[in-house]
Amino acid sequence: MHISEGVLPGYQLLIGWGLTGIGLFIGLRKVNQGNLPLVALLSSAFFVASLVHLPIGITSVHLLLNGLVGSLLGWAAFPALFVALLFQALLFQFGGITVLGVNTFNMATGAVVAYYLTRPLLRKKTKWSLIAAGVLAAVAGVFTAATLLSVELFLTGSSFRSTAELAFLAHIPVAAVEAVFNSFVFLYLAKNSPKLLEG
Amino acid sequence: MRGIDPRFKIVSFLFLAWSIALTESIGKVLLYLPLVLATSFLFFRGRRFPFKVFLFADSFILLVLLTQLFLGSKEVALLVFLRSNEILLLSVSLLSSSSLFEVLHALHHLKVPNSLLQVAFLSYRYLNELSRKFELTLKSAKCRGFTPTTSKITYKTYAHLVANLLAYSSFKSEKVYKAMLCRGFNGYFPVFRHFKATTFDYLFLVITVGYGVLVWSL
Prior knowledge:
By secondary structure, chain A is mainly α. Chain A has a single domain, classed as Arp2/3 complex 21 kDa subunit ARPC3 (Orthogonal Bundle), CATH 1.10.1760.
């Protein structure tokens, strides 16, 4: 769930841009001419994949996939997610430009957390380590993003308390579905494109 | 609106969007409305208003509005609704009236770091191809009898489709890298069409930014 324009106060927007700036600086240092096409193409692939709606009961959820991006790209997830969110803002008006800093920070922090948690498990490449990596990537990615979003809304004012709680609760089914989804993705990649899991 | 230099539109958008986002009073936010409506009128003249886009973009705002109306403050709900939709209208009129490639090219002129723009340029270049590839594989799965339901097989099928897309992206990126080396890529993407600012572009910038400064100083 991305925060829309006009919701957060100015100081949070500025802090969000500042922290994203730091993340982008570190992330872009990991991107060289050799892995630039990979980061860019994976960014496009995640943009496409994030538009997929998975059925869950009578409704459907769209996946965040930030944990998966982080597990494969590490700190380079910052520029990859920044670009994907910029495209979403420009093409679908989803999220926005003034909140791009905050939204990138929320998503990419979860991605980096997922990277450090899943790295040892992805190196093992056994069935259960890949499943555990999938679950960890989803939990770390989705809940870090959900927690940051809820904290930001909570800090916006006391009237946003219920919005913050609802926003956090809405992420629980997403994390559950994404845990299953990520595990299948890692199992598939280990068989068909193991190089991608090497980071 | 399409004729205006994208660099000027971006600067104008950024100034107005930030001014609106940082405004805390409903009265002041309403003062930006005439300018927002004027730019939207210029953009939407002779076109259908994209209600679907706004409905999709406002889904988070809907959550905020409902919780504010029933559990929070009605004034906050109105302020958030006005701020959000004014910026949204500006974004559609000023940014979406140029192609994504033009926006990225303009950002290059506005000194956005080149390495970030290279990622964006390449991502945009392959966005359609990957989207088509994904749709094709999904169509192929559906032709073979795949029907999405809340089941393990549905999640596994979608996961394999996405994983296949990631594997394809990795494979394609190696070919792209080799092609870039063959063509002597030096860190810059050459462009054939360059921007040329006109008096009208400067006039547009002065009017929009001037209006923003005027409202801000009130």
